[in-house]
Predict the structure.
Amino acid sequence: MRHATMRWSVLKRHLTQERIVLAIAVALFILFSIILDKFLTAENILTLVRSVSVLGILGIGMMLVVIGRGIDLSIVAIMAISVAWTLHLLNLHVSLAEALALGGGFAVVSGLMNGVLVAYVEIPALFATLAMGTFIYGFGRSQLIDLDIIQLPEHIGWFGKIGTGYVLGVPMPIILFAILGFLVFLFLRYTRSGRFFYALGDNLPAARIVGAPVRPMIVLQYVLSALIGFVAGLITATSVSSMNTRVVNSTLVYDVILVVVLGGVGLSGGKGSVRNVLVGTILIGILVDGMTIMDLQYTLQNVIKSIILLIAIVVDSMVNPRDEQTAQQGDI
Amino acid sequence: MSFKKLALAAVATSALLLTSAYAEGIKDPNIDAYYQTFKGKTIAFVPVAMGFDLTEGWAAGIRQQTNALGMKFEVRDPNWSTAAGAQAITSLIAEKPSVMVIHNPDVQSYAHLLRKAQAAGIYVVQVNMESSFPTDAYVGADWHQIGATAAQAVVKACGTGSGKSGKVAIVQGVLTAAASAYQVNGVYDVLSKHPEIKIVSNQAGDWDASKARSITATVLQQNPDLCGIIGFWDGMDTGTAAAIKEAGKTGQVFLVTSGGGADGACTNVENGTFSEDISYDVPGQARDMNNMIKTLLESHLKPGTLHLSLYTPLKIITKADMTPTSCWNLKALQKAATATD
């Protein structure tokens, strides 16, 4: 009896949410490989990863903020408007370098404003970025661009390859997802700023007492997530030859939060890594790809998707129940 | 004065009078009443959102007429929010414009409000997306016909005698939108008579190019011999086309789509992105709306008396029969409207 309890506790220690989600992903992958013809082919795997790489990139940006116990609800608005403006400038025959600098600059300024509102004005991130998202979209649509879908001009040279090129048979968006993931991994693990992100997310007053520059670090998080949003937008725009600013009104930002939380990055801050986002992204990728191959009806797809997600969350809350130690103030 | 002289004078005077009447022309007895009917009237427009070719084009067309006839034109932009649209209609009912032009987001949301507006004495013209409550007039595309036309094009490209696989995919918009639901019905009506055509995928792209791109990529992966794709909106199907291009199948997969026919449509047909684009010609629709607005105002009938429909004649744009006037330019249309301000 005592033996069994011990085994259970050992098992529990190993069953983090990340592993549960990974297990579900592997199970689905095996299931689809057996029942679906042509699921397990190199081409399909590349298509699968490719279709979620933008989601994954946005997830990495969101994760940087969530680790510091914040959230960036404006990331999709920043992505849409900064990139739509870049394309708009290109259509007006502004040079590529200038257009990219202005668009990227817009993203940085938006991120700075988010960071200042959260770190210095001390508005809760949820409200600050929600309001900023609406502001950025409204400002962009009324002042910077005149239509809600901006087409990519032809003859843009190498720039178009960001979304459509291949390296050794692997689509560029996947390569960029991998590079970005690796850079952020290095940043979080080996730089001082990266370690401070965890420290201030885990316990902000303690981080401040030991001398971490918490306010500038918070600003840095929002600037990074805005820049990553800009990159994700460039990939989206170049792969479908246009930027659709209506994406701001879609559920994309919730999907981004979903892959972050699903993979095991806690909204209470202080924990999580690129690997968590990868796992969450891959599960969504496998699900969507498999259901598209099965030609399931869209509404049914949503039901199945949400059931799988609920299972992952329920299993996690059973295996890792919340108690006074794990639940923190400010947990969403 | 002799009688002869008097007669001569009379003839001369009347001749003089007549000449002067001809010099000034004759006044058309109808115009005063015509212009009086419109002067000072207000036309209100509630689209699902401004900022895309359809609604911007319609607004420019209506504005041109309201300026010319001394009417007021108001646009309430709910920016994709059905709740904000309902709010806009509610406040418009209190303000009592003469005519409301409504672009419905779906068949249900505004039905009750449109009934109320007509009861309050406002003419209601619905455009391109009709609600379940028929009002004074509907001006817009016949979605069933667009679906059927697209399906016929695909049958021609992939059906018997084409030597192709007959495999076809459908990329819908949002399933609950009238434009998508009616269109898919038209597609199936035609394809059900052609057993050689096999629908291998029928998915919703949510009017979003990125979603359409990833759906199409997967479908092409599974069906390398796919023959045709029916897309439901050219703004979304640039994504569908991107997936075809990436798979190296441009020209092999027949892609038919539809839209408002702005110049981007012609560019995309010309460079082979789309095989065929079925246009519902926005400037033509704007003129239909203008005529409907004038007809209703001139009829002086009580709102709700008539139930008129003007389905838009479709323009089919292919590389073979494209002309310089096949498409229209939004900037030019807007310029023409602001010139009359």
About this structure: Chain B has a mean pLDDT of 91. The longest helix of chain B spans residues 3-24. Residues 31-141+282-312+330-339 of chain B form a domain with the Rossmann fold fold (CATH 3.40.50.2300).
